[in-house]
Design a protein that fits this description.
- With 266 residues, this protein is mainly alpha-helical.
- The chain has one domain.
- The chain starts with a helix and ends with a helix.
Amino acid sequence: MLKLNNFYLILFTFACIFIVLDDLNNFFIGNLLMFASLALIYFSAKKDFKNYSLLAISFYMAHYAEINTNLDWANIFILTSVFFLMVWVPARFSSGLISFDFRFKKWDKDQFKWFLTTGFCALIILYFYFNDALTATGLPIHRSWSIEGGAGLPLDFINFEKSVVLFFACMLLGCWDEMFFVNTVLTVFKKSNPFWLANTCQSLLFAAFLYELAFQDWGPWMIIFFAFIQGNILRKTHDLVYVICLHLFADTILFVYILNGHYSFL
């Protein structure tokens, strides 16, 4: 049976999804849902109101920042600042609920096996994704990441500056994804809800954000699956650094596929 705290979590999740998706109609619906969810939280679970309000502020930041894959330095500076604030605001004002443990811990055999499994799965799934998926405008999915140059150019013509910027952008975004969604959002959600529901909701938000960024077509299903697993791994290992390493391994493979989409060197 759906409890009241489960209901306002689901309502809040859909509010954030509509707010993140860059469409005026979606934003209007998102505002209505956000008002309803925060009002419900305030009157039924005031102890959770502050933390959910902080998350709401972060998602409104994402909406007004116009999330995209533009690699111009001005855009990178703006998005980096916004992403920093989206993590910092909940962590700073959540009264100690949210923390980031960056201590390196020794990996056991299962963690090494899962690390290699993550790389193998990313290699296979992203191969099919980049050879099959299209953007909303009907272009191949790698065109979501704009690098100067065209497909089929030899390696000598690769724009190395843009490629290096893209690589570090992928790595930094991967770190941020885990710090914000899998660590921050999930921590708030699971405080008053069953873990499976909290993890499902953070996975939906993770996917909505990356859909707006670049992962369209059947990309959201892939992201939901990945984010859900990451949440479970963090719960089991309590090792944020390990979860980030898994993400960065997958993002390194993602970077190679993006580059190959533009320059066809594989």
